[in-house]
Specification:
It is a single chain. Strands 1-2-4-3 form a four-stranded antiparallel β-sheet. It has a domain of 159 residues: NADH Oxidase (3-Layer(aba) Sandwich). The protein is globular and about 45 Å long. The chain is an alpha+beta fold and 229 residues long. The termini are far apart. Helix 1 packs across helix 6. 27% of the residues are buried. The protein binds flavin mononucleotide (FMN). Flavin mononucleotide (FMN) binds next to strand 3.
């Protein structure tokens, strides 16, 4: 199914047309559109109304300087020690297979074979340029935040992703940024008591980018959801 770039007319439509977009058009998002999204997202709920997110939105020259600095780090393979790992290790089944399948499906669309380790690494580095999006977002939070606040931040991300679809935009949530916390903290002047939680690319999705044909599988309803009557 090709990438749907229309403005979503309902929440259902926003959910059904959202994918993690990994290729964007070189087209700026009007500031008013961006402000509207983040103004509306203030209504995101959070336990105890803590609103634990701190959001850094970069565009234009700032974004270019930021991605350039991060790309330099990636190229010189600077290891910064991630904020926290993306997954438990080792992963168990079926999650392990789901993760593996996602990677295989993506690299097959990109025509990068399993033994082409360099090719896969180079593709991963696209995270450092927010996949070419005109808007790069970094979410930081207090180092003392607990699991409950991390859930709140997940809800915040989904709110942004839904509002983006309503505006005809696409997004890519990126845990990848947790691998470069020091550079980010320095660049954005993040206070000492905060750390990097997640990032997000936002912009107009490129319907011609092959990677945007990736519709990640989902488990069947009955595998994960149980109704009790
Ligand atoms: C919190 C979070 C972090 C993610 N981090 C990354 C990332 O760093 N790079 C990436 O390419 N995709 C990332 N993803 C995208 C997931 O791989 C994707 O959501 C999942 O495979 C389902 O596919 P879909 O979003 O296209 O429906 C992330 C998703 C979430 C929710």
């Amino acid at each position: 199914m090709p990438l749907n770039t229309d403005k979503s007319v309902s929440v259902t439509d926003a959910i059904m047309t959202r994918i993690t977009c990994r290729g964007f058009l070189d087209k700026p998002v009007p500031k008013v559109e961006l402000e509207q999204i983040f103004e509306t997202a203030r209504r995101t709920p959070s336990g105890g109304n803590l609103q634990p997110w701190r959001v850094h939105i970069m565009t234009g020259k700032t974004l270019a300087n930021f991605t350039e600095a991060c790309m330099d780090n990636v190229k010189s393979a600077v290891m910064e020690g991630e904020t926290f790992p993306a997954y438990p290790s080792p992963l168990w089944e079926p999650q392990r297979s789901w993760r593996y399948k996602l990677g295989e499906d993506m690299y097959s669309l990109l025509d990068i074979s399993r033994d082409n380790k360099l090719g896969r690494l180079m593709w991963l580095a696209n995270n450092a340029r927010f996949f070419g999006a005109p808007v790069g977002i970094i979410v930081t939070g207090n180092i003392k935040l607990g699991m409950a606040q991390h859930m709140d931040i997940g809800i915040y991300l989904q709110t942004i992703m839904m509002l983006a679809r309503e505006a005809g935009l696409h997004t890519a949530p990126q845990g990848w940024w947790r691998r470069h916390p020091q550079s980010i903290i320095k660049f954005l002047n993040v206070p000492d008591d905060e750390h990097v939680l997640v990032g997000m690319a936002l912009g107009y999705g490129d319907p011609d980018a092959p990677v945007n044909n990736l519709w990640a599988d989902r488990a069947e309803l009955e595998e994960l959801v149980h109704f009790y009557d």
